[in-house]
Write a structure and sequence with these properties.
Number of strands: 15
Shape: globular
Strand content: 15-25%
CATH architecture: 4-Layer Sandwich
Order of helices and strands: EHEHEEEEEEEHEHHHEEEHEHHE
Structural class: alpha+beta
Largest sheet: 6 strands, mixed
Oligomer: single chain
Number of domains: 1
Helix content: 25-40%
Strand order of the largest sheet: 3-4-2-1-15-14
Distance between the termini: 6 Å
CATH topology: Deoxyribonuclease I, Chain A
Number of helices: 9
Amino acid sequence: MRIATYNVEWFNALFDDAGHPLEDLEWSSRYDVKRREQLEALGIVFTAMDADAVMIIEAPDDNGKRSTVRALENFARRYDLRTNRAVIGFANDTQQEIALLYDPEKLTAVHDPQGEETGKKGARDAPRFDGVFNVDLDIDAMADRVVFSKPPLELDVTTASGNKLRLIGVHAKSKAPHGARGKDEAMRISIENRRKQLAQCVWIRKRVEGHLAAGESVMVVGDFNDGPGLDEYENLFGRSGVEVVLGEGTAERLHDPHARMALTRRVGAMPVTSRFYIHTEKRYLSALLDYIMVSSDLNALNPKWRIWHPFEDLACYQTPELREALLIASDHFPVTIDIDL
């Protein structure tokens, strides 16, 4: 079975309110790319991946007028994808949902949120992801009240062969100091965003530990906007959010070979999953932001991870149509895991 995570930049802008793909020559929200070009590129990428399930980060919006499920299932129909069933969890107000597009002949996936409902008061013991998490991150004996702008998607997955899996889709808080005026404000916002991102990862880790204690297979996938050594503010808190979710000290670990490489190698080539153009510097910045983390029982099945990077994956590079599609479709590249489930 192949499971993927894929952050599709502004997927929402490619559909009308009825969920129909906008295959025209108007500009998409992706820089210098027309809507038809991006849709066709995405069709090529999804077809080439041939995954049994794709966790889509930045999936189309879900609100009173628009439906994430309708848009994704229309997309699957248009490009003849076997991943033609979609499911989402708690919708958010960012126009960037988290959704799973999957092949119903290979698995079933049900939104199954864990934890208590908190209302505004919050709770310390890993509440439901649409609630409020109270956690002290700065050792001032005062609890920080943490919320997700994009609540993780918790799924109860059953494969066609009867295997069970807890699958959690994540889009953690971005650390970029958007809206900052001057260096001091940029530093303040960056530190605050780092604190929020770390708190979200503590929350996710607590949920993971609950599943591990129950003897359940766990897979955490998505865009963490973070990684070991990604910025200088990590030193203020001692570790990255990715390290928190993977597990620290004597805690049972989750496994991701790309994260392990980033943790153990400070010099030399690193795996990357995203590529952003820096207009002020007229160059591209690459980063490892997207992960597929698995529990030890799943890791024992000898899974194979792959980053579909247009320049670093040989098969992608040697297939010009796919190589160009990956560059047009998004500023992130898919990550897949092949595992016997």
